[in-house]
Amino acid sequence: MTAPWTEWDHILKIDPDKELVDGETFADVCQTGTDALEIGGTLDITSEKMSRVIEACAEYDVPLYQEPSNPAVVVDDEAVDGFLVPVVFNAGDMAWMTGFHKEWVKSDHVDWGRTTTEGYIILNPDSSVGQLTEADCALDADDVAAYAEIAEQMFGQEIVYLEYSGMLGDPEKVQAAADAIDDAALFYGGGIHDYDSAHTMASEADVVVVGDLVHDVGVDAVRDTVEAAKDA
C-alpha cells in the first residue's frame, strides 16, 4: 500500500497549546486546502488538549494525524488516521531517539498499523525543540545529507523531516537532504510565512509543514502557502 504522504504537498500543524486567530474556527482551518492536519507541539501538551483539537477537526474530510511529543499525550481516537512519531537523529538527549519510544512500547498501547516514525533533523538551536532535545544543530549541508541518508538507509525511515522550528531554513541544506535520499519522503518545517517562502521550500522538499502561521496570522495566509506548495 502506498503511504498517503507520498501524495501530499502541504501539512498544517496545529499546536494544541495555542489558540486560533480571533474569529476563526477549526472549520476554517479544515477548509484551507491542506493535505493533512498534524496535531502536536513541544511544550505544555496534554492528552486533554490533543483531544480538544481532534474532536473539533474530526467531522471534516481532512486526514488527521497526531505527532506526540511523549507517550503521555497520545490519544487513541478512531478519528485519528495515524501517529507520526519523531525520532531525533541529532538529539543530544537519547530519550528523543529511543527513550520515550521504549516507554510507549512498554505501555502495550502502540497501534503499529497506524504508527510511522519520522527521522527528525533539528536545525534551529534557539527553538524550544532544539533546546529540549539538546540537538546538535551546528550542521553543514554534508552533515544534513549524511543524517538523511542514515535515517533512510540504516534505520529504514519512510519520512525524513528537516525541522527549523520558527525560522526559515537554508535551501541548500534542504536540497542536500533531498539528494541524499531515494524513496523516503522529505518533510520541511520552519518559518514558512507566505507564498514565496512556501514555494522556495516546496521546490526542494516533498512536503512543507506550516504551523505557527495559522496561530499567528490566520487561515488566509495558510491558503497562500497551500497554493505555493501545489505550484512548486
Summarize the structure.
The protein is α/β, with parallel strands linked by helices. It is 34% helix and 18% strand.
Describe the structure.
The protein is an alpha/beta fold. 34% of the residues lie in helices and 18% in strands. The chain has one domain (4-231): FMN-linked oxidoreductases (TIM Barrel, Alpha-Beta Barrel). The protein has helices spanning 26-29, 47-57, 99-106, 128-133, 141-154, 171-180, 195-202, 212-216, 219-231; strands at residues 10-14, 36-39, 64-66, 82-88, 115-122, 159-163, 185-189, 207-210. The chain has an eight-stranded parallel β-barrel with strand order 1-2-3-4-5-6-7-8, surrounded by five helices. The longest helix is centred in the middle third of the chain and has 14 residues, at 141-154. The protein is globular, with a radius of gyration of 16 Å.
Secondary structure elements and their pairing?
Blueprint: E1 10-14, H1 26-29, E2 36-39, H2 47-57, E3 64-66, E4 82-88, H3 99-106, E5 115-122, H4 128-133, H5 141-154, E6 159-163, H6 171-180, E7 185-189, H7 195-202, E8 207-210, H8 212-216, H9 219-231
Parallel strand pairs: 1-2, 1-8, 2-3, 3-4, 4-5, 5-6, 6-7, 7-8
